[in-house]
Amino acid sequence: MKSQFERSYRTAVFMAVLFFLASFPLFAGDTGLAKTPPMGWNSWNKFACDINETLIKQIADAMVSSGMKDAGYQYVVLDDCWMAHSRDSAGKLVADSMRFPSGIKALANYVHSKGLKLGIYEDRGSATCQGFPGSYGHEADDANTFASWGVDYLKYDNCHKVGDLQSDYTKMRNALDSCGRPIVFSICSWSFPGPWVTGIGNLWRTTEDISADFAEDINHGTWTQLSILSIIDAQDSLRQYAGPGHWNDPDMLEVGNGMTNGEDRAHFSIWCMLAAPLMAGNDLRTMAQRTKEILMNKEVIAVDQDPLGIEGFRFSSKDSVEIFFKPLAKGDWAMCFLNRGVNPKNVSFGPENGDVTDTLSGITTGFQHIAYAVRDLWSHKGIGTSEKDLKAVVPGHDVLMLRLTPVKK
Ligand code: GLA
Q: Is the pLDDT confidence value at 101 over 80?
């Protein structure tokens, strides 16, 4: 028989090993942040360089008063053009004194006082895309500056590059790790950077910039602004890189920026099926009711924010109708019919379609032996069970989005 001492010694060693292992993050850059896709607002899509502290404060106010905060939106992110044209005599970044006369620290305090978080923008090169000072060679200094201001999120762009992609983003990752403040790291290099990024960023752009156009790209000569459909098509083959703490980012939302209601709904639904970060890009101060109903549809947001953190996948594509599936916690599934065409389409789904299996997680619907209650997440109504054939009409450039929940028998 083992002595009491031997047993407690073994227990102590076991506990010490556990503690040692637990003190290491799962990967470099695992800060415990962004366990679900980050939600917030970013200034670029609507305001580009036309930003100032009054606007940002009003946006923070509107994020609370509109109900966006209650729906889960949290980060208020300043994009390009917040800076002065040069660093100060000590080499530190400074805010543009006309646009942000009170400085970024005061703005962060204001945003924090609303229960929200502040995000900011920089670039890995010698200058930002709009020509303001870049962070190349100043990574540690800039990360410390952001931390001292109370910044909670950094979008880090890819213009005027000097160094190598992976080493530049790694340098800023290390600088953030040492700055003494948890800061979400949003990598923006306009295409999937490579599998290494999962250990560096909390989110990374997978494509060039989005446009508020559902189906047509805009060619700018040296670069292309992508339609919603082009961005959706570019996400195939990337889903294995997404998961709690690290997400594919198909770019900020264009909901409320000029597309039709159906297009906005389809854009938002597919972003949620893809477990994408949800960064609103419209003017929150003047949102139409129809825009609010999309951005704050809590049932659709719950699909995006599902704790399993599995990015959905395209199950089928036929006659301009695609069906996406996303496994959710507790055996639920999200399902979304996307009509890419302009004409309404009859859609159907039933036992003859067989089981749906997610090859990545191995999760299967088991339609043969599990019945699901089916809920329409846009009409907010139950529409029957999976035991019956589903038949519906999906308008052009629109979706039918459903949640399937196992029915206890
Ligand atoms: C790049 C990014 C955009 C935006 C602009 C700002 O184009 O991809 O999202 O940040 O720069 O200049």
A: yes
